[in-house]
Write a structure and sequence with these properties.
The complex is a heterodimer of chains A (386) and B (276). Chain A is mainly α and 386 residues long. Chain A has 14 helices and no strands. Chain B has two domains: 51 residues, no CATH class; 211 residues, 2-Layer Sandwich (Alpha-Beta Plaits), CATH 3.30.70. Helix content of chain B is 33%, strand content 13%. In chain B, strands 8-1-10-9 form a four-stranded mixed β-sheet. In chain B, a hairpin with a 5-residue loop joins strand 4 and strand 5. The longest helix of chain B is centred in the first third of the chain and has 17 residues. Classes of the chains: A mainly alpha (386), B alpha+beta (276). The structure holds iron/sulfur cluster (2 copies).
């Protein structure tokens, strides 16, 4: 099956080489970071996690989003998703690999990574995060590969894979819940110390993952002979829309609690993110854009005639993807550190090597996705020909 | 409470802490005087409260630091900082981004963020010394995925530079900003400083880049039977002693003086006290 990734047009190969170039640049930047230390990034004593951990958090969500296809397909036997569910699983694989890479590049002593396994520490949430992320990767490899293999042979999925598919549902919830627990259990970081963190993470995940998927599927429909089915796309779009509404609703609740209670510590980060504090306001344009773009996305996906137009469908999904990315991939992690525990403000400016490395990890994700989708689409095209 | 009742209660309290039901806060509510009661039953491990014979004993040692804000001056604060940073080979990068610090000076407003009283003009002018609080319930140790930072039985929250993977989870978890990460190779900065006349303390290891460090309550000196270096530098400002011993110097002072601790509402139970 994998051999299908080796046959492709010149555009396909051009794209692969382009990604490889970015990965190469990132690799060189990473060697530099390894040699000099994490000081080459914009992180500091006050902002001790930056782009890497923020991207990690976001892509855990993208990975968990796949479950929005798995649930209808396997729990409700919604057959319209039969052809696309494997794309969700493959997206999850690419996203989890990205997460693991983001962790590796963020760690000060990567050579000691195995300490997490050698000294298992059940009172640390990172310990569980390691288990659930690696577990989710394996489960999705098993499910994705076998569903596709069965499709290729025109047989139903083998019985032993079913339990893994069902397992993938609570597991998807768990990866994002545990990731939320990394933040939500820390005393003294008011912005993160909220019981709604995990639900909000899940809501934004169920918007972010599927919106990326719809954009890719629309593209695939355009350039290949594979048709994911209009009904399937429309339905995923509805899911995205509802999830995004819930996400914004939860965000509104954070605002209410902070500002109505009027407790300074609870308000501080929100003030910094959306209005700026004193001369500090780097993230204000981002966060405001997030709100505007997010509502635009909701509107486009909510109104049926607009949503049915493939162009607007793509725009709507892009809006949701971007809004959730700003919210979680920029504001959430950085914002949690501002103000610092002494109520002083240090801002964060990512550096060139840091961005190069992060972009390279995006490219790794893109490459994995390209290869897996290439295989899946070839299989689907063969099916359609028969 | 009678003897029996209390023991039963302690067991329940210990159990609920184990299951993570926050037994310790319920426990605290029942106790009258803060520190005295805390120590009577062992503030940390409730399981230590009853030994095999059923006799109640607390932990034998819980080191604590008292900083006398009536005795401190700017010069003394600087002397203390210098002594500590010299003895522990703490590099001076000269910029806030790469900064490493074990003990430093800060204003009242930033030290007591929760209980800052803007009308207190006396406290406002004092140079507060900040350091790791060696919390009795340290969140930094709770989150560390490899137990590179951990609470020793004597209450010192120690740091193992050889096990730390540099994930910086502990920095996010510490509500006091006590921890520093070696973003760059600290030996580079030290070398530069040595060229300008700084001396290296050969008795204490330098660190490598990619690991976290913080005040260690001078464990290397404690284990040799000595007091922390800051206490030696300014014995009238810094008082160090055993909080678990009712007759210790620190307990005696705490009985007589008004003291503040940082962010008590978070349940971390700091072992650093500010005498005001
Ligand atoms: S002050 Fe911070 S670093 Fe020190 S023990 Fe408490 S939580 Fe840990
Ligand atoms: S940076 Fe080191 S000490 Fe801190 S949590 Fe990670 S492994 Fe533990």
């Amino acid at each position: 099956m994998i051999e299908k990734a080796l046959k492709g047009s010149s555009v396909y190969w051009g794209w692969v080489i382009f990604l490889l170039c970015i990965i190469g640049a990132g690799f060189i930047a990473y060697l530099y970071q390894l040699k000099v230390g994490l000081g080459v990034t914009g992180m500091s004593r006050d902002i001790s996690w930056g782009v890497y951990i923020a991207q990690f958090t976001y892509f855990v969500g993208v990975a968990a989003g796949a479950v929005m296809l798995v649930i209808p397909k396997y729990l409700h036997h919604y057959t319209k998703y039969a052809k696309v569910v494997v794309f969700g699983e493959f997206l999850a694989i690419a996203a989890v690999v990205m997460c693991l890479l983001f962790i590796i590049v963020d760690i000060g002593q990567p050579m000691r990574m195995m300490n997490v396994v050698l000294h298992p520490t059940p009172h640390s949430m990172l310990f569980y995060d390691m288990i659930v992320l690696n577990g989710y990767l394996i489960i999705n490899i098993i499910c994705g590969y076998n569903t596709l293999l069965a499709d290729k042979k025109g047989l139903p999925c083998p019985g032993w894979v079913k339990p893994f598919i069902y397992l993938s549902i609570p597991w998807a919830i768990s990866i994002h819940t545990v990731t939320a627990f990394l933040y939500a259990g820390l005393p003294g970081r008011h912005f993160w110390l909220t019981a709604i963190m995990a639900p909000r993470f899940l809501a934004s995940a169920f918007a972010a993952g599927p919106s990326l998927l719809v954009m890719i599927l629309l593209f695939v429909r355009k350039v290949t002979k594979f048709d994911p089915g209009e009904e399937a796309l429309q339905n995923i779009a509805r899911t995205i829309c509802y999830a995004m509404i819930v996400n914004f609703f939860f965000m509104g609740m954070e605002f209410f609690t902070a500002f109505y209670s009027n407790i300074p510590g609870h308000k501080a980060t929100l003030e910094y993110l959306f209005w700026g504090i004193g001369q500090y306001g780097n993230l204000v344009p981002f966060m405001r854009a997030c709100i505007i773009i997010g509502f635009a996305g909701i509107f486009i996906l909510l109104v049926p005639p607009i949503r049915r137009n493939p162009f607007w469908l793509a725009v709507g999904c892009a809006c949701v993807f971007l809004a959730t990315w700003i919210d979680k991939g920029v504001g959430l992690v950085i914002g949690g550190f501002i103000p610092n525990p002494l109520e002083m403000i240090t801002e964060y400016h990512p550096t060139f090597p840091e961005i190069t490395i992060a972009t390279a990890i995006w490219a790794v994700g893109g490459l994995i996705l390209t290869i897996l989708y290439k295989v899946a689409i070839s299989v689907r095209e063969e099916e359609q020909r028969i | 409470m009678s003897m029996m009742d209390r023991r039963k209660f302690l067991k329940v309290a210990g159990l609920s802490t184990l299951i993570g039901l926050g037994g310790s806060s319920a426990f605290e509510l029942l106790k009258p005087g803060k520190v005295d009661a805390e120590m009577e039953h062992g503030a940390h491990g409730h399981h230590e409260a009853a030994n095999e014979e059923g006799k109640e004993t607390g932990p034998k040692t819980r080191w604590a630091m008292l900083i006398d804000m009536k005795a401190i001056t700017k010069e003394k604060a600087e002397k203390i900082i210098h002594t500590c940073h010299y003895l522990h080979n703490v590099p001076n990068w000269g910029n806030p981004k790469d900064e490493i610090k074990w003990i430093w000076e800060e204003e009242y407003e930033h030290v007591f963020t929760d209980s800052y009283n803007e009308y207190d003009e006396v406290l406002e002018k004092l140079p507060f010394l900040l350091m790791c609080n060696h919390c009795d319930e340290p969140p930094c140790a709770r989150v560390c995925p490899v137990e590179a930072t951990f609470r020793r039985p004597d209450g010192v929250v120690a740091q193992d530079y050889h096990r730390c993977i540099g994930c910086r989870f502990c920095m996010a978890a510490c509500p006091y900003g006590s921890r520093s990460f070696n973003w760059l190779d600290p030996r580079v900065a030290l070398k530069k400083e040595m060229a300008q006349g700084r001396k290296l303390n050969k008795q204490f290891p330098t660190r490598m880049r990619g690991v976290v460090e913080k005040c260690n309550f001078c464990v290397e000196r404690l284990d040799a039977g000595k007091k922390p270096a800051c206490v030696e530098a300014c014995p009238d400002v810094m008082h160090f002693g055993n909080l678990a011993d009712e007759n210790s110097n620190v307990r005696k002072i705490l009985r007589e003086r008004i003291s503040l601790r940082r962010k008590l509402e978070l349940g971390t139970k700091p072992s650093v006290f500010y005498l005001v």
